[in-house]
Amino acid sequence: MSNSITLNPRRRRTVDVAARRQWLDDLNALVHDIELWSAENDWAVKVERKRIREDEIGVYSAPALIIQTAQGRLYFTPIARYIGGGDGRIEITAPSFRSVVLIRRGHNWRFYDDDLVDLKKTWSKKNFNAVARELLDRV
């Protein structure tokens, strides 16, 4: 079975189905973490779907989250798998429009501020909680 398909034979553009599948698995792993960690904080999580189109992996439906806390909502929004300087980008946004960016390089997710300054925090329960609370404190 091939891991790529041709969308339009005239344009000869192929889609890497295996890469799309892996990206969605990676996103679902993050969603699972957020659901567990949010439950520990008594935060409700609603999973919605976001349609994304990327040349390399085609059109897909990615999980996007609304995290409801006592202080307000946070929005977890996948942006793209293929980005300059990284292997995936997700934005976590508060109602104040302040955001933190989660960027994957290799197999490691790191938090950056909205100016893309490295916050020196990798993906973990402790760091997710700290970043979420900091975003909510700014509301």
Structure description:
With 139 residues, the chain is an alpha+beta fold. It has one domain. Helix content is 27%, strand content 46%. The protein has two helices and nine strands. The strands form two sheets. The protein has a seven-stranded antiparallel beta sheet with strand order 3-4-5-6-7-8-9, with helices on one face. Strands 1-2 form a two-stranded antiparallel ribbon. A hairpin with an 8-residue loop joins strand 5 and strand 6. The longest helix has 24 residues. The protein starts with a strand and ends with a helix. The mean pLDDT is 91.
Oligomeric nature of the chains:
single chain
Helical fraction:
25-40%
Rg, nearest Å: 16 Å
Principal-axes geometry comes out as globular
Order the strands across the largest sheet as they lie in space. Answer: 3-4-5-6-7-8-9
Structural class, from secondary structure content? alpha+beta
Largest sheet: 7 strands, antiparallel
Q: Element order, helices and strands?
A: EEHEEEEEEEH
Relative strand content: over 45%
Q: Which stretches are low in confidence, meaning pLDDT under 50 for 5 or more residues running?
A: none
Quote the average pLDDT: 91
Terminal Cα separation, in Å? 50 Å
Number of continuous helical runs: 2
Number of domains: 1
How many β-strand stretches?
A: 9
